[in-house]
UniProtKB/TrEMBL annotation:
Protein name from the UniProt record: RRM domain-containing protein
A GO MF label: RNA binding
Taxonomic source organism: Micrurus surinamensis (Surinam coral snake)
Keywords: RNA-binding
Domain RRM: 30-104
Length: 200
């Protein structure tokens, strides 16, 4: 596969206890403040995609007075704890994120403006079907870990090939993966699963 000079998408350090609640023993709120967001490439939906791995997302709001900064209201304080532990200091689109517990108790939809990609600076995700912790059974299936170089894909139609993923990366201007693996499906399987690995 041809390599391209594309900015590093995600680089991750080991999780570290850097937020104030870690030193106090207990998380202290359900709102996260994240700064260092790429202003041209990040919006509410992408922030949701990043944080929904660690808990349900209620609301996301970008701050007008502090460019590249957003507030994320999560389902509970433990979701905040997981998000801070796994996302603080992660490098995304060439910028290092600072993720910490906010002093705000909730996200209020005020000072709404248009982001650089034309989308709204505020979005409510409380009823989103993409929230992954809506029941104990669903939550128990989630694997909590920091961002990594390996993507596990599943529930993919049988017609999908390596070339399909390459085209998907090209269409979204994402550096292509360096390794591709598909797990051998059972004879009765209707979908595929496997792994994609990127260079970190």
């Amino acid at each position: 596969m041809a390599s391209r000079d594309t900015p590093e998408l995600v680089a991750y350090p080991l999780p570290q206890a850097s937020s104030s609640y870690m030193h106090g023993g207990n998380p202290s709120g359900s709102v996260v403040m994240v700064s260092g967001l790429h202003q041209q490439k990040m919006n509410c939906s992408r922030v949701f995609n990043l944080f929904c791995l660690y808990g349900n997302i209620e609301k996301v709001k970008f701050m007008k007075t502090i460019p590249g900064t957003a507030l994320v209201e999560m389902g509970d304080e433990y979701a905040v704890e997981r998000a801070v532990t796994h996302l603080n200091n992660v490098k995304l689109f060439g910028k290092r994120l600072n993720v910490c517990v906010s002093k705000q108790h909730s996200v209020v939809p005020s000072q709404i403006f248009e982001l650089e990609d034309g989308t709204s600076s505020y979005k409510d995700f409380a009823m989103s079907k993409n929230n992954r912790f809506t029941s104990a059974g669903q939550a128990s299936k989630n694997i909590i870990q920091p961002p990594s170089c390996v993507l596990h894909y599943y529930n993919v139609p049988l017609c999908v090939t390596e070339e399909t993923f390459v085209k998907l990366c090209d269409d979204h201007e994402v550096l292509s993966f360096i390794k591709y693996k598909v797990f051998d499906p059972k004879p009765s399987a209707k979908t595929l699963s496997g792994l994609l690995e990127w260079e970190c």
